[in-house]
Every structure is written in C-alpha cells, then in structure tokens.
Design brief:
The chain has about 400 residues and is mainly alpha-helical. It has helices spanning about 5-10, 35-45, 60-75, 80-90, 100-115, 115-130, 130-140, 145-155, 160-170, 175-185, 190-205, 210-225, 235-245, 255-265, 265-280, 285-290, 305-315, 320-330, 335-345, 345-355, 360-365, 375-385, and strands spanning about 290-295, 300. It has a domain at about 75-170. The chain is elongated. Mean pLDDT is about 80; it is low at about 25-30 and about 395-398.
C-alpha cells in the first residue's frame, strides 16, 4: 500500500464493493457428508403414511367435510324444476339428490302433482336409495305414494314384497290381497281352500273382521263346490246350480237355506233365481206352491220380487194363462191387477173381477175384446144372463 497513492488504492484495490447489479454466482453445497440431513431424509421416505390429525385438527377436518356436503347439495337441481321435467316427460336423473331432506322434498312435490308416473318414479328412486326402515316409514305418510307403489308391485307380481310393504306400513286391511292375487293362478279348488287355511293360520289374528268374514264366506262357497261337484265362478251362479240340483232332488232345500245364510244372499236374489229355475223347467204348479199362498179370504203372494216384474217375467216366459191369473189375484193393488190382466189378455181374471164389482156395463164393453166362441166368451155370456144384482147406472141430475 506504500507504493500506491491513495487514489490508486481505491481504483486498483482487489477488494470489490457489493452491487445489486452484479450477478450472484450460486454455489452448490454438497451435503452428502452431513449425517443428520441423511437420517432425516431417510426417515421421511421410510414413513409411508402420516396420521391425518398430524396435518389438520379434527375440528378443521369436520369443517372441510361439512363445506363439501353443502357444495354437493347446492350442485343438485332445484326440486321444483325436476318435478316439472318429470311431469312433462323430460328425462332427468334423480341421483343428484343425496340428502334425506332433498329426497323427502322430492316425494312431497311429486305427490302434489297427483300424477301417477311422476310419483312412481320418485318412489322407485327412494326405494333404491333408502334402507327398508326409512323407506317404509316415509312412504306410509303419503297414502297416494303408497297406493302407487303397491299397485306397481301387483302389476309386477311381486307378492312377497307386497306382503312386506303391507306389514311394514300397517296396511293390515289390505293383507287379504296377498291371498286373492296369487289365488287367481290356482287351478284346483282344493288348493285354493288349503291356501285360505294357511292364510288364517299366519295372518288371521291381524286382519280385519270384514276380511275374515269375506274369506269365511269364500271358504263356504268352495265347500259347496266340492261337496256337490259343481263348477261355478260366483256364489250366485253356485246358487243357480244348487236350485237346479234341488229340482232333481239332489240337494235339500235346507242345505240351500244354510248356503244363502252363510253367504248373506238376500231373499230377493234367492226368489228371483228360484223362479227362473222353475220357469225354465216348466214347473208351473211347483211355482204356484212356492209363491202363492191361499188363505181364508184371498190368495197372497209370498215373494220379495216386485209383483209387476214377476208377472211380466212370467208372461215373457210363456206362462199359462191360469198361472198368470193366480198371481194377478194375489196382487194387493186391484187396479194394477186389472191393468195387467187386460194387457196380458187374462180374460177370465178380468171377467171375474168385473163380476165381483157387479159392473155389467164394463162387462158388456169388455166382451168386445174376447174372441167369439172361446171359453172365456161363453163364460162372460153366462155371467151376463145370471140373476146377479148389478150396479145401476147413475143418472145425471137435471
């Protein structure tokens, strides 16, 4: 430094000052010999899984998961818009709705449309995505949805599932369907009767009294079919066949009465069916014995069928005139009887009523309606020539 001046020293100094404009040359440091760094590096590679709670707290993780659920929920379409699309037949996917609250809102809005297709699609989605307990609980609160689903099961012949739904939703009054629907495929009467017994054994304690009565009556119907070897599709048809067998003395009248009482068949149906059997068998005298009961003063009809209807039916089946006259005599309404007698040309009945009323003029007038030289014509002539005391014609006051 002694050989350099002060100015030369600062200009030619080997020491350089720091400048921000100078490029800094990076130097690579070799840590291969650093034992501590090597151990730390190895420990990281040897540890494959770290506990989640060492990275984030449980509270923070719960917040993240909750935010994720909210984001997923907000990503689902608006329920009302989806229901509108279903109502209009536009294809749409329901799997976006994952929360129970959203699914129940879907069900509620679907039921409000009263559209069976919309309701059924939502119900089937709930059936697929909910467990049995939740599904049965929530569908039981919407009767229209429950009816749609049970009808769907019936149409698909899924009777075990139908039984489960009825039991789980408390629809015990509908349990009888689990017998009737499969019974349609039974070809044997004895098999059907056996299944009724099985139904009573398994579900007899919980079905309604009405259903018990219905099945008991059906069982009685099957018993008579088996007992008398009949082929009938209904209790009324069975009663018709029983009356036919009764005409041939193969079935007792008492047995028929028991059958009607068991199945609660009213007397109008009983009488109408019996009349038809006797009429088609031309058993006219037996018909009189069954339904016309004479007493000390007059004949009386013991039949719950309307007399006008009965007489009309007998005339249409070609009943003999004397049979019609017997029923006309038993009518309580004399004027109505006279009208039907004239309408169906029961001349003897009309003549007897006019003679009974001592109405000679009406008798002479009615003579014009009777064929000449007929039995009724001579009968009328005889009555006119008799010394009966006839009614005198009223004269008008002048």
């Amino acid at each position: 430094m002694s050989n350099l001046t002060e100015d030369d020293y600062w200009k030619e100094s080997r020491l350089s000052g720091f400048s921000f404009d100078d490029d800094v040359k990076e130097e690579t440091v070799d840590y291969s010999d650093d034992t501590n760094e090597t151990l730390f590096y190895n420990s990281l590679h040897n540890t494959t899984t770290l506990p989640i709670h060492s990275v984030i707290s449980k509270k923070g993780l719960d917040c993240i998961l909750q935010d994720t659920k909210l984001a997923a929920r907000h990503s689902a379409p608006v329920v009302e818009e989806t229901i509108k699309k279903l109502f209009l037949g536009v294809p749409c996917v329901l799997d976006h709705y994952r929360d129970l609250e959203q699914k129940l809102e879907l069900l509620q809005k679907a039921c409000e449309t009263f559209d069976g297709n919309v309701i059924l699609k939502v119900v089937l989605f709930l059936r697929r995505t909910l467990n049995d307990t939740n599904f049965h609980y929530h569908i039981s609160k919407h009767k229209i949805a429950l009816n749609q689903y049970t009808n769907y099961l019936i149409s698909q012949y899924k009777f075990p599932e139908l039984h489960t739904v009825y039991m789980a939703t408390g629809s015990t009054n509908e349990l009888i369907n689990t017998f009737y629907l499969p019974a349609r495929n039974y070809t044997s009467i004895r098999k059907t009767k056996e299944e009724i017994g099985n139904f009573f054994n398994s579900l007899g304690s919980i079905v309604s009294a009405f259903n018990k009565t219905t099945l008991t009556q059906y069982q009685t119907f099957l018993d008579y079919l088996i007992k008398y070897n009949l082929t009938s599709d209904s209790p009324i048809e069975c009663l018709l066949n029983l009356f036919k067998e009764n005409v041939q003395n193969k079935v007792s009248s008492q047995d028929i009465v028991l059958y009607c009482n068991s199945l609660k068949i009213d007397t109008i149906q009983q009488h109408w069916i019996k009349i038809n059997v006797l009429v088609t068998s031309d058993l006219w005298e037996k018909l009189l014995q069954e339904f016309v009961k004479p007493n000390a003063f007059m004949k009386k009809i013991k039949c719950d069928v309307d007399v006008d209807t009965l007489v009309t039916a007998l005339h249409q089946h070609g009943a003999p005139k004397h049979i019609l006259c017997q029923f006309l005599q038993g009518m309580s309404d004399a004027d109505r009887g006279m009208h039907l007698g004239k309408k169906y040309q029961c001349h003897k009945f009309v003549i007897e009523k006019l003679v009974e009323n001592r109405d000679r003029e009406a008798l002479i007038e009615y003579k014009k309606c009777i064929p000449a030289q007929s039995e009724e014509y001579f009968y009328l002539e005889k009555e006119l020539l008799s010394d009966k005391k006839w009614k005198t014609k009223r004269r008008s006051m002048i």
